[in-house]
Amino acid sequence: MAEELKKQQLELANLIERHTDHDGVIETAVPSLFFIRYSNLTEPGYRVYKPSYCFIAQGLKEVWLAQERFEYGPADYLISSMNLPVIGQVIRASNDVPYLSLKLEFTQNQILEVLSDSDFQTSAKENPKRALFVGQIGLSLLDATLRLARLLDNPGDIPYLAPIYIKEVLYRLLHGQYGVALAQIALEGSSTFRIREGIDQIIKNFDKPLRIDELSEMANMGISTFHRVFKEVTAMSPIQFQKQIRLQEARRILLSESADAADVAFRVGYESASQFSREYVRMFGSPPKADIKRLKENYDGRPLSTEQIFTGSNV
């Protein structure tokens, strides 16, 4: 089995390399499927991961969710079951052996459809689980992933076969090591399902004051229960979650516009420019002006890539 896994990993790496003629994140002709290629180690990338399945065919990456570190490579896969602010960095890549990976984004409804059409057994009463996890890749999951990627060599098959193959990949994930945790996002009544709307509200209204009473009422939970479940799912409190979203957006604005740091602070919801500067330093390591100057100098005047600097790749 180990030999077959290596053979399929190599085929997938070759396929990704053929379909990526430059570094970065490339949207493929298969809906919600992206290929990623980097020929060098990357800056730490700050972004919100969407619900997605990620697999590295070649190279190595580390991802931080709050204070938790996840490292994964060709023997593993990563799943983000919700929208989560994370830090990701490619830590193994070179011109000769580039980092090659894929990302398949999915929705709650797609998970629910697979649950409805299969014999998967779980309960909405399961304890809430972390929404980011790394599992060991198996032959059945890798085989399904490879067949989905192979459609790019036969584009005429994509409209008919892609939905079937995507459904199979999700089926394999649900029957894998973290299937129960993944299923919770689609089971109405589960703590994870109920916390999801609160997460989406914070992201949507990140520049507004945080109203925990409204979010907990939306989740049909008491305030203390909401706090506990939110931290179990995201590894951070609601205020820490909002802070990461605000600071990510502030950095994006500072990099893409000629804006004053104090003005940006107010745009993302801070009432105090000094507090914004302190928290920016804690997250990015230096004050806004110095941080943006360093990033721009590191790229030697080349066009700034949203994926490389603002957010990093998603896998």
TrEMBL record:
- Family matches, as PANTHER family: ARAC-FAMILY TRANSCRIPTIONAL REGULATOR, TRANSCRIPTIONAL REGULATORY PROTEIN
What SUPFAM superfamilies does this protein map onto? Homeodomain-like (SSF46689)
Describe the location of the HTH araC/xylS-type domain by residue ranges.
196-294
Presence of the UniProt keyword Transcription in the record: yes
Alphabetically ordered keywords of this record: Transcription, Transcription regulation
The protein in question is named: AraC family transcriptional regulator N-terminal domain-containing protein
| Signal peptide (residue range) | none
Record's InterPro entries?
Homeodomain-like_sf, HTH_AraC, Tscrpt_reg_HTH_AraC_N
Q: Does the keyword Transcription regulation apply?
A: yes
- Pfam families tied to this protein: AraC_N, HTH_18
